[in-house]
Amino acid sequence: MGASGGDIYEAEKLMTDTLGRMVPEDVEALFTRADGQYLFARWGRPIAPVLFGVDDATVSVFKGAIEAVVALAGHQMAETDPELGANLMVFFLREWSELTDTPNLDRLIPDLGPLVGRLQQADANQYRSFRFDELGAIKAAFVFIRMDQAMQEAAAETIALSQMVQTILLWSDTAFLGTSPLAVLTEDCPAVLKPEIAAVIRAAYDPVMPVMVQDPSHALRLMARLGALQ
């Protein structure tokens, strides 16, 4: 259902108000890791996704979320990656132990056995692993989703959007601890992307911005691009 003029106005006003409250420290925190290192990276090649362990309906929902976030970023998708075939692999499973039973997965994920142990000990329900090219840009990502009770109760659209938002950039490992990049507007509807996070994604993929940065001053450049987008 299309938005009315009033809905569009309110959404634009919300974005402007929200971005007006952001300061460079807010942006810097999104890419400052627990060890204090600033590390930003975005995809350097078109995204070619493949999903495992779900039915066709869920595949359709997930690919719709991927297309939406890629379009927001102004990035591209592809049927295949010339080097890897698929460069975004999403796995759904019920127990982390299933990972060690997946043929050849240990070739993609280093130290798979110890990783499974850590995920089990933490009772985690999601994990993402990235690979990078010679410029430091993201060239592949592996997303693992354990369908625990919380995941089973979440809408497929919410899971898909959340995972894709957290995969479109290399965010800090603490960026969304205790919070979410999504917001629930009404109880009966899927969550939506928070406007400030959407704006950061758009700014990060501006062609004038670098694909990988380790200098915290990058946050100031992102803030400048955020201002230009308003």
Instruction: Tell me which oligomeric state these chains represent.
Output: single chain
CATH class: Alpha Beta
Characterize the biggest β-sheet: 4 strands, mixed
Largest beta sheet: what is the strand line-up?
Answer: 2-3-5-4
CATH topology: Collagenase (Catalytic Domain)
Measured as a percent range, the helix fraction is 40-55%
Overall tally of structural domains: 1
Distance between the termini: 25 Å
Low-confidence segments, ≥5 residues, pLDDT <50? Answer: 1-17
Short description:
This protein is α/β, with parallel strands linked by helices and 230 residues long.
What is the secondary structure topology, with strand pairs?
Blueprint: H1 5-21, H2 24-30, E1 40-41, E2 49-52, H3 56-73, E3 88-93, H4 105-108, H5 112-122, E4 126-132, E5 138-146, H6 149-153, H7 156-168, E6 182-183, E7 192-193, H8 195-204, E8 212-213, H9 218-229
Parallel strand pairs: 2-3, 3-5
Antiparallel strand pairs: 1-8, 4-5, 6-7
Helix pairs in contact: 2-9, 3-7, 8-9
